[in-house]
What we know:
Layout: E1 3-9, H1 21-24, H2 29-42, E2 45-51, H3 55-65, E3 71-75, H4 84-93, E4 97-101, E5 123-126, H5 131-146
Parallel strand pairs: 1-2, 1-3, 3-4, 4-5
Helix pairs in contact: 2-5, 3-4
The protein binds 1,3,4-trihydroxy-5-OXO-cyclohexanecarboxylic acid.
Amino acid sequence: MQKSVLVLHGPNLNLLGQREPQTYGGASLDAINRGLTDEAAKAGYSLQIFQSNHEGELVDLIQRHAPSSAGVLINPAAFTHTSVALRDALLAVARPVVEVHLSNIYRREPFRHHSYIADIAVGQISGFGPDSYRLGLSALMHHLNTVTP
Ligand code: DQA
């Protein structure tokens, strides 16, 4: 059966392309999602992709869709730095997680240096613009193919 990956985008990422392009680049979220879908298909994976500006909705999406997914690719955006609830939801579903950020969060304000997700993730990719997603998906699929039974 084809494996599926849950892709989650957190708050304000619906504005990619218009939002602070000097920090987040010019690609729209739709363009990023199309690229991810193509990459996944080439590797024999399907994607379930969602964006939400609401913490509770992201928790609901994790609870609803992670159980039928082999792994989770997530850019928690601002909730990276604040959300115990997202961390707990990801722990609850017990799926391999890869955390991605367009910007290098460690080169930015000190409040962005802490992630509530990083230490429960397989790994984190930060700072490569839209390519962070592609690199993160590739790393997650590699992990799922080689490490997860
Ligand atoms: C972000 C980094 C976060 O600090 C910020 O709140 C975002 C986007 C990134 O992709 O670089 O909204 O997750």
